[in-house]
């Protein structure tokens, strides 16, 4: 059957000629097989195309889900950063209180040992894979928990110290004596008069003449007079070796022997003595030695 031959005769009109086409049986089987293969191929292609579209939809849905999760994790990272900043402020305030209460010799940052340092996860989130970011956040939350527990212990120590030292706390110069701008900080500087390097023993706060000056703590006025270099100067003794000094004043509102309370008006800002402009030169001395007033001011 496969080897049978078929003749196809084709007559041409008005020409009296004809053409013969010889076909073998296997050619029909070949054409049929090709047709079947074409049909099967189309079916397979259509099914594959449908599968690809389904996969594309799945990938798109997965990408949207990942993007939503990344957004949530970025929001979480922002909250973590805010929490870390709050804890840092609490630690700084704690350290300053401990120095003021003579529980520590100097202000220093205290954290848990061996825990990773805080990082800005929001900036690095785009560079880290989601799993790594989640793991780092988990570790950082553990670190914050440990630090918070340590800080709780330190706060309890301070509370115990404050209960027995309320009088001492009232005598610590813990507020700004006036309003204005710090134009010269405590420490080394170049003298505005000689141009030479010198050690500035206080803090200069500038404002207009007559700006009120308040007592930063409870104390007793021990000096209120004019000084050749510092102009009108006021000195308040707070006890425990602490003394505050106010220079270049315009007027006094207290006199020697008067007792002061924190927040009480004691003088007004001026430009007396050797001065470059209206300002208050504010000093804090401990046992006669100048110390940085910022050590005691609770901002």
From TrEMBL:
Residues 199-293 form the M23ase beta-sheet core domain. Residues 52-86 form a coiled coil. The chain crosses the membrane at residues 26-46. It comes from the Bacteria. Keywords: Coiled coil, Membrane, Transmembrane, Transmembrane helix. It holds the Pfam family Peptidase_M23. One of its GO terms (molecular function) is metalloendopeptidase activity. This is Putative peptidase M23.
């Amino acid at each position: 059957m496969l080897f049978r031959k078929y003749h196809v005769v084709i007559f041409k009109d008005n020409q009296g000629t004809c053409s013969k086409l010889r076909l073998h049986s296997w050619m029909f089987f070949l054409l049929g097989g090709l047709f079947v293969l074409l049909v099967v191929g189309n079916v397979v292609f259509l099914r594959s195309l449908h599968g690809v579209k389904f996969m594309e939809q799945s990938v798109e849905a997965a990408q949207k889900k990942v993007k939503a999760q990344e957004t949530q994790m970025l929001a979480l990272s922002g909250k973590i950063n805010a929490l870390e900043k709050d804890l840092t402020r609490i630690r700084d305030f704690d350290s300053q209180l401990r120095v003021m209460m003579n529980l520590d010799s100097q202000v220093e940052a205290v954290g848990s040992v061996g825990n990773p340092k805080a990082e800005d996860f929001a900036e690095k989130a785009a560079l880290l894979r989601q799993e790594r970011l989640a793991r780092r956040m988990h570790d950082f939350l553990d670190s914050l928990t440990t630090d918070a527990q340590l800080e709780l212990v330190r706060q309890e120590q301070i509370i115990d110290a404050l209960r027995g030292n309320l009088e001492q706390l009232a005598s610590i110069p813990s507020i700004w004596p006036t309003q204005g701008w710090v134009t010269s900080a405590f420490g080394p500087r170049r003298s505005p008069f000689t141009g030479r390097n010198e050690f500035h023993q206080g803090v200069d706060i500038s404002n207009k003449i007559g700006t009120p000056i308040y007592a930063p703590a409870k104390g007793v006025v021990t000096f209120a007079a004019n000084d050749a270099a510092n102009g009108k100067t006021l000195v308040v003794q707070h006890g425990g070796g602490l003394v505050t000094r106010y220079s270049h004043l315009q007027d006094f509102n207290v006199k020697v022997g008067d007792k002061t309370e924190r927040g009480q008006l004691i003088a007004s800002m001026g430009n007396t003595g050797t001065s470059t402009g209206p300002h208050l030169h504010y000093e804090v001395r401990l046992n006669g030695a100048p110390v940085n007033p910022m050590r005691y001011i609770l901002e």
